[in-house]
Amino acid sequence: VCFLQVLETLLLECTPEETVVIGGDFNCTVDPLKDRNHLEPHPQSSKELLRIIKRFQLADVWKVFNNTRQYTWTKITEKDVSLARLDRFYTFQHNVNILKAGFITPSGFSDHSLVTATVMFPSVKPRSSHWHFNAVLGADMHF
After folding, report:
1. Alpha-carbon Rg for the chain in angstroms
2. pLDDT tens-digit map of 59-118
3. 113 backbone dihedrals φ, ψ, rounded to 5°
4. Chain centroid to CA 65: how far?
5. pLDDT at position 101, please?
6. Where are the alpha helices (DSSP H) in the chain?
7. What's the rounded Cα separation, in Å, for the pair 51 and 13?
8. What DSSP string describes 71-87?
9. What is the mean pLDDT of residues 9-27?
10. Which of 27, 56, 81, 87 is 20 to 30 A from 33 (CA-CA)?
11. Which residues neighbour 51 within 8 Å (Cβ) at sequence distance 6 or greater?
12. What SS3 state is found at 139?
């Protein structure tokens, strides 16, 4: 909950013109029926995160592009398998147009999956894909 209080403080400082993408392991879910296969162990954090999402009109990047159930965390014990979608990216609803994709890719070396978001900033123009050597540097004795 302490992290979520810091997050809320930072979001309060954002202006409507700013583009913000927040990513991390939130260690709780906001929709336990869809985002985990067991009871939510952190109901207070879950409730607080949901309140922040509503207050700041945040969009879950993966849910913007996917309407299926997929998990980002796995814990296997002798008795059961626990699954949850703990790792997420959020952005303001008014910034959803910069999103191009959201993926969850399982990882063989971690209990967390790789979560990626493809973002395209329209005000950033791509640079040339060709690299050119500055020939003047060839005559520079100190280069």
Report:
1. 20
2. 999 999 999 999 999 999 999 999 999 999 999 999 999 999 999 999 989 999 999 999
3. -85, 165
4. 13
5. 94
6. 2-12, 32-35, 43-55, 61-65
7. 17
8. -SEEEE-SS-EEEE--E
9. 92
10. 56
11. none
12. helix
